[in-house]
Amino acid sequence: MPKSILILSNKSSGSSAVQRLLAQAVDLKCVEKTRHFENESLYWTKAASALQMPQQDMLDSEVPIEAMAARHDLVQLLRDNLPAHRLPNYADYLATTATTAAQDRAFIFAGWQRLCEQYTPIFLEKSPHHLVQWSALSLIVDCMEQLQGEVDFLLVGLVRNPMDTLYSAFRRWKTPPEALQYEWLMAYTHLQRLAEMLGTRTRVNPAGRVVIVRYEDLAVSLAPLAPVFDFCGTSPSADAPCLNRRSLLKWQQDRFFGFSLAPEVKALAMQYGYRDADLDNRDRPLWPLYRDVRRSLHHSTRWGKNLYWYLKRSRQI
Q1: pLDDT digit string (tens) for 39-58?
Q2: Are 34 and 40 in contact (CB under 8 A)?
């Protein structure tokens, strides 16, 4: 039976690193062709868009994607990654007035099954978008039920210290952590709900469908991934590397980073095992000015780069 692993996380939580770590020990595959980075397809948030299910606007992201664009994206993804004889019938799917919601769901679930069959033995999808969107998660749960006996699923919830996550996102995209922290809160509230619905998988409870691992623990040992390796029918070598420990608590070394977590975000982080010392930050008087200037410069630089590439392409036409 084909197997499907979905790594669910927030942005800047290390899902790409965990994917590479698993790939060193497990014969797994990802989609080969996608318009997104790091082998991501955004399959389930696009499915939620195509079905016009409610989704949360995400910071510095195209999600949620407009419904018709999402439908075309899904069809293109399947055409790019499946041989013709494996493609589900998609002609009617693109005609918005020709299909019912039930037919659309059947197409989406059939598309996922075909991807799992194409990328055997284990098809891996990771996304820092799905965990924020309960509509996407509910579709995954429905697909697991629909394909029971056809595809074996495992969901891996990857948690990272919110301070590290928010600091990484600020460094990469200059996303204000004051706003982004509430996406972290929503994502990991959803993970708790998902684990309650499907059960947490451990070696003692192999019937659970959700494995929750912390990034920080994987920087010390691969032991928390034991249920995942069991699901894959393998184990890592004795000298398999862990995640990079140098990426931990970098925000504490930044003398300008003065962000502090909201009480409700800190409370949820502590439920995942983080301590005050992992979460508390000192006030930095210049932080608001530093944050706003860095974001303004980032946007102006990005606008300039986009203009440069537009003009360059225009000259080539």
Answers
A1: 899 999 999 999 999 999 99
A2: yes
Strand bridging mode 210-214 / 28-29: unpaired
**CA triplet 252, 253, 259: central angle to 5 degrees?**
45
Structure tokens at 189: 């509230």
Q: Rg (Cα) of the chain, in Å, rounded?
A: 21
From the list 242, 246, 245, 260, the residue with the least C-alpha distance to 167 is 260
Q: Which of 71, 82, 70, 67 is nearest to 33 (CA)?
A: 82
Give mean pLDDT, residues 226-250. Answer: 90
Residues 105, 76: Cα–Cα separation, whole Å: 17
CB 219 within 8 A of CB 244: yes
**Each residue's pLDDT tens digit, 274-286:** 999 999 999 999 9
Residue 59 near residue 175 (C-beta atoms within 8 A): yes
Phi, psi angles (nearest 5°) of residue 244: -75, 115
Spell out a b/e string for 283-300, using b for 16 or more CB atoms within 10 Å of the CB, else e: ebeebeebbeeebeebee
Q: Please report, for residues 50, 52, 53, 69, 93, the alpha-carbon distance to residue 101 in angstroms, rounded to integers and kept in the order given.
A: 9, 9, 11, 17, 10
Does residue 133 contact residue 102 with C-beta atoms inside 8 Å?
no
φ/ψ (deg, to 5) at 47: -65, -45
Residues 166, 59: Cα–Cα separation, whole Å: 12
| Distance of alpha carbon 151 from alpha carbon 143, whole angstroms | 10
Of 106, 118, 117, the residue nearest 47 (C-alpha): 106
